[in-house]
Amino acid sequence: MTDPLDRVRQEARTAMSRAYAPYSGFKVGAALLCEDLSVVAGCNVESASFPCGICAERAALAAAVARGQREFKAVVIVTDAIEPTPPCGMCRQALAEFSPGMTVVSRAASGREARWTLADLLPSPFTPSSLPTQA
Ligand code: THU
Would you state the pLDDT for residue 134? Predict the structure, then answer.
């Protein structure tokens, strides 16, 4: 039986190979498994003006939202690190806007994987309902 996340891992790996990370040398690919089972990937894109860079997870999120996707089952993150790396705090918050309960899988070069729920990684997110105007 094939793991339904295999397709997502593959898309994340392909995106990682396209990452633009000449400053950190740390290439990251991320792929979102959307509620309709489509997969949308992104990679980190750095900039000579360092703060302009974007993480793979938020690049994937922006691409998915542009395709009309707003609910996500899972994100798979792929790097060449020795150990699986968790998403940064900004990406946790950005993902939680849409699917705070989603699964987060991170895969290292060794094939070792870590798995969390986004709620484990960001237990008390600021959400749309945190804004008085959206309550
Ligand atoms: N990076 C990501 O793409 N995702 C993360 O969750 C953590 C960090 C990127 C940002 C930067 O291009 C490089 O990795 C080093 O921080």
Answer: 67
Does residue 34 surpass a pLDDT of 70?
yes
Angle subtended by helix axes 6-17 and 56-66, to nearest 10: 110
Q: How far apart (Å, rounded) are the C-alpha atoms in residues 76 and 15? A: 11
Q: Report whether pLDDT(8) > 60.
A: yes
Kindly report the protein residue whose alpha carbon is nearest to atom 4 of ligand 1: 55
Q: For ligand 1, which residues put their CB under 6 angstroms from it?
A: 21, 24, 26, 28, 44, 46, 53, 55-57, 87-88, 91
Span 39-48, pLDDT tens digits = 999 999 999 9
- 28-34 and 72-79 strand pairing: antiparallel
Report the catalytic residues: 57
* 23 CA closest ligand 1 atom index: 12
Q: Is the pLDDT of residue 54 over 60?
A: yes
CA 26 to centroid of ligand 1, rounded, Å: 7
